[in-house]
Design goal:
By secondary structure, the protein is mainly α. It has one domain (about 20-125): Cytochrome Bc1 Complex, Chain D, domain 2 (Orthogonal Bundle), CATH 1.10.760. Helices cover about 55% and strands about 5% of the residues.
């Protein structure tokens, strides 16, 4: 089998896994896939960093999402974001968050898994 064929099979398998299990963040340096990039933009635009910090690592009084998402399912994350919890406000009435919740999860889960670096991101072309 040629090297390109093996690479295509590996990429195909990754795409299949992403479809079966939800989006999986893909990054090469600070260049990330579209879903991850959109999630990062949503995180910034909705000012999630006000409480959770610019890199989602939290602060003295707010949860570190990088650590929290190591133990939370996508469903748990979605429930908390949309319905709120403790000091976390509910975002179910925020159209941008509701429509972008999958991308937001992809970005934050990528940060949690260590596949997405902290800091400014660019969209892979």
């Amino acid at each position: 089998m040629q090297k390109n064929s093996i690479k295509n099979l590996a990429v195909s398998g990754l795409v299949t896994a992403a479809v079966a299990f939800g989006s999986v963040a893909q990054a090469e340096g600070n260049s990330v896939d579209k879903s991850t990039f959109n999630g990062w933009k949503l995180y910034k635009r909705q000012r999630c960093e006000t409480c959770h910090g610019p890199t989602a690592e939290g602060g003295a009084a707010f949860p570190n999402l990088v650590v929290a998402l190591q133990n939370r399912t996508k469903e748990e994350f979605t429930t908390i974001v949309l319905n709120g919890k403790g000091n976390m406000p509910a975002f179910q009435g925020n159209k941008a968050v509701v429509e972008g919740i999958d991308d937001l999860y992809t970005y934050l889960k990528g940060r949690s898994d260590g596949t997405v670096p902290a800091g400014e991101l660019t969209e892979a072309q």
